[in-house]
Design brief:
Glutaredoxin; alpha/beta; about 55% helix; 2 domains; single chain; 5 strands
Length: about 250
């Protein structure tokens, strides 16, 4: 009898251990679980989060969907990767929305199946959901991260011109920047390119305020954008200015 009781006790203990191990595994596959670096959307925060200030990858899911459950570990890893990268965390946000609980969140994006992954370029807020597009790449964290990084690099080139970037580099290397700016060929090169007036204006600022103006202004604009309390038009102007400032930045070269 003692042997039987012992076997029974061991069986119960083994079953308890298996159940305890199964709980974390099940939670790890729950799309509703909180993830580091991933924002959960709901009707109260969606307009604020999807403001267009950051490049956004959004997952629209249903908790019962098998494909959504299988995506959980990779999506959680992606959130951690973005949060740990200073450049990416400044420009990118990862979000997710339970469309079984909040169907209205998926409607502006035309969500009809789960999971749907949408990319919202910077400048694309909830009101411009039609400008978002599907992420069609591999659903591993590294692949999603690399795609987002590629888009960030493209975004940072908006407003830039290769020829004017060379002029900017030569300007920053000049011992006498005021004389460089006053040369007729400098003005001719700048006037020949659309958007050159922004480059010229920044050169004037650097002459008047010193080389340190570049990094200080890049940082100042970054802080203003991070707060998010600016109009869409002001945001677009600041992105252009910040991008062109990077052409003069020693840290960016």
């Amino acid at each position: 009898m003692a042997v039987t009781k012992t076997k029974f006790a061991l069986a119960v203990l083994a079953a308890a251990c298996l159940m305890a191990a199964a709980v974390p595994a099940a939670r790890a596959q729950d799309p509703n679980v909180s993830m580091e670096g991933v924002i959960d959307l709901d009707p109260t925060n969606v307009k604020e989060v999807l403001s267009g200030m950051k490049l956004t990858l959004a997952e629209f899911y249903a908790p019962w969907c098998g494909h959504c459950k299988r995506l959980v570990p990779e999506y959680a890893k992606l959130g951690e990767m973005v949060a740990a990268d200073p450049m990416m965390s400044q420009h990118v946000q990862i979000v997710k929305a339970d469309c079984d609980k909040h169907r209205s969140l998926g409607e502006p994006f035309g969500v009809t199946g789960f999971p749907t992954l949408k990319i919202l370029p910077r400048g694309t807020g909830l009101d411009e959901a039609r400008n978002s597009f599907n992420y069609e790449g591999a659903r591993e964290a590294e692949a999603m991260f690399n795609k987002l990084k590629e888009l960030v690099e493209m975004d940072k080139k908006v407003g830039r011109d290769d020829k004017l970037d060379v002029v900017a580099s030569d300007f920053m290397a000049a011992d006498d920047k005021a004389a460089f700016l006053a040369k007729p060929e400098t003005k001719t090169a700048i006037d020949a390119v659309f958007g050159g007036e922004l480059y010229y204006g920044l050169m004037e600022k650097i002459v008047n305020k010193g080389d340190e103006y570049v990094e200080k202004e890049i940082a100042r604009i970054g802080r203003i954008i991070a707060k998010g309390k600016i109009t869409r038009e002001k945001f677009a102007d600041m992105i252009l200015k910040q991008n062109v400032l990077r052409a003069f930045s020693v840290e960016e070269s």
